[in-house]
Amino acid sequence: QWTTSSIVDDTVAAIREQIGDRRAICALSGGVDSAVAAALVQRAIGDQLTCVFVDHGLLRSGERAQVERDFVAATGVRLVTIDAVDRFLGALAGVTDPEEKRKIIGREFIRVFEQAARDLQTEAGEAGEQIDFLVQGTLYPDVVESGGGSGAANIKSHHNVGGLPDDLQFELVEPLRALFKDEVRRVGLELGLPETIVHRQPFPGPGLGIRIIGEVTADRLETLRAADAIAREELTAAGLDRDIWQCPVVLLADVRSVGVQGDGRTYGHPVVLRPVSSEDAMTADWTRLPYDVLERISTRITNEVAEVNRVTLDVTSKPPGTIEWE
Ligand code: XMP
């Protein structure tokens, strides 16, 4: 019987065997896979691991704190946060095309991580402790999907750092290669990670950048972040987190509609709620959320987020719609 604690013990032993007394780095995305992979490696080699968290400014409310405070408290991991908000917003200025946004965010992410890795490598090198390993949260389904080949060539999404340049050669450490998502979550709990990280719903690497329809600006991000936080709070309060796959909130930043509030006419932006039910994100159905929950979300968003005067519900399945709007 392969219990969760024996998975942890075996994996930790295998990581120790692979890394020995050398050093490793890991990019944290805020998601469950990189968090559990990092926590396992931390347990195996302690401070020989350094984690890097890139704040690209496209995160949801509270996500940076979740990594910097909660994840560090739970694991004792050594963490470097790179504040790259201005850099990402600069690179995204004037861009409205969804694929172009993805490319820019992916490219900047690699560059920022690469620089962080170089800086750490320089520091470590001066102390005679070169970093040899890169930790990745590759799961079993990813391994199978990519034909069982190993490593960097198979990475699909940008926040799994795949395209590192040749002069930054790392050997990969992939402690989750034999595990499915539900096992990863159990391992995470076994390692004492917070529920908010272990049961986090999927969130795209390009973050809120692909949930603002139109140009991404600091003001628009602030508006969307506020609306998203309210939707998440109310879904959690209603006990619905485990029933929905995810619920993107999308800001139609280039659309305005007329409304009325108090004595005055408003001319604000709509947001779209996109609650979906799914097994694997390949197909999805729109979730029949209770009307009273929708009502609370709508009332709170229009009352509390000044720029938003209309809340709409997306009732499209996938296909033909995708889960995200971009
Ligand atoms: P779609 O919109 O294609 O989304 O139905 C399917 C799932 O993938 C997530 N998603 C992404 N994740 N980088 C990511 O890491 C991306 O560019 C990206 N686009 C979509 C989406 O949130 C959903 O869970």
UniProtKB/TrEMBL annotation:
Keywords: ATP-binding, Glutamine amidotransferase, GMP biosynthesis, Ligase, Nucleotide-binding, Purine biosynthesis. It comes from the Bacteria. Residues 2-200 form the GMPS ATP-PPase domain. It catalyses: XMP + L-glutamine + ATP + H2O = GMP + L-glutamate + AMP + diphosphate + 2 H(+). GO terms for cellular component: cytosol. The keyword Protein transport does not apply. Its EC number is 6.3.5.2. Pathway: Purine metabolism; GMP biosynthesis; GMP from XMP (L-Gln route): step 1/1. GO terms for molecular function: ATP binding; GMP synthase activity. ATP binds at residues 29-35. Homodimer. Catalyzes the synthesis of GMP from XMP. This is GMP synthase [glutamine-hydrolyzing]. The lineage of its organism: Bacteria, Bacillati, Actinomycetota, Actinomycetes, Pseudonocardiales. The chain holds residues 203 to 528 of 528 of the full protein.
